[in-house]
């Protein structure tokens, strides 16, 4: 096992944690406060900053958005200054040659003397960006920069966006194999289905480091955490649920997988042509495999047949669901309408018939946001020196997210706030422990 420096939630112990902005009474950014795990949680840790104006009160303007992106959202910071000739001789030639010789003799020292051990590559081909679709690598770059910024903010991990001007799975995999010495983990992002499944599988097989397609597994982890919260609120058992997933793409397949591993036995998946069932002859390989382990009641038809008497609706597609179909669900129904920016059904409409409603948006209660998962998952995997991210590690991450909110579960708070500073450390610790227990670290 490789020797690794002591870390604090994904950061080496000698690197200060990222700062949290303070907002003064006028709503302006002021000083900084260090993240601390040992202190009791405060409102600042569990909610938005004090006196921060809501988006409803102070709408975000296009000018504000574009100004925040001028020059990009990322920069490279030095851990040690280069102000003198001595600094220059240590950081670069001739001093750096000593470090290169040491790594040449003992390859594992690259983790100690470079940033690769704590560097996540955020990789995309721009084919499935947010709700925008195939907009290409250049247009996807602001999103990938944002992802890297979240890694730094919530887990203290360095991250660089890499957008590739190719849609060829062979070329994407080969590129990452050749770049492997430059990073410690790979976050695949916004790659269209079904290509994303093959690309993730092949990259995992080819590389000896953590790899995860966040659109699949980050979504699935937070969905499972939210369902655990809903079950705690309703005093029900996850294993008794009848779940309908609208969408058989990246997120839908991953959600079906993690629910299966969590013990949910009655899952029905819908695609644009109806219920994914082994009776259909138009399924691709991924959907055929999905049909073999879902739909235990052998339902046929479409949304109406699937949702009648169902306990949970999980929307991860762009399709719309009529109010009458939500009304046909069982008592105490749960609706997760996660499509962004437009949910499958408006949450206020869904709330007429469902006891718990969640969306992917920040302007409604119960935001199911991947940022609750991926920073801590990668931090924990890197802390443990894990060679891959397993189902057991994902289940541990979901349980950790739920545990943060468990003491204050309400119908409008089944998961923690994305800004809750307790989440990433809890997830990282749980994922690292699971990696060690499973023997992948």
Automatic annotation (TrEMBL):
Protein name, UniProt field: NADP-dependent malic enzyme
- Domain Malic enzyme NAD-binding as annotated: residue spans: 216-436
Segments traversing the membrane = none
* Gene3D superfamilies, alphabetized: Malic enzyme, N-terminal domain, NAD(P)-binding Rossmann-like Domain
Among CDD domains, the record links this protein to: NAD_bind_2_malic_enz
Q: Keywords assigned by UniProt?
A: Oxidoreductase
- Start and end residues of each Malic enzyme N-terminal domain: 71-204
Pfam families given for it? Answer: malic, Malic_M
Q: Where does the record place the region Disordered?
A: 1-55
| Annotated Polar residues bias | 33-43
**InterPro entries according to UniProt:** Aminoacid_DH-like_N_sf, Malate_Decarboxylase, Malic_N_dom, Malic_N_dom_sf, Malic_NAD-bd, Malic_NAD-bd_bact_type, NAD(P)-bd_dom_sf
Query: Which PANTHER family does the annotation name?
Result: NADP-DEPENDENT MALIC ENZYME
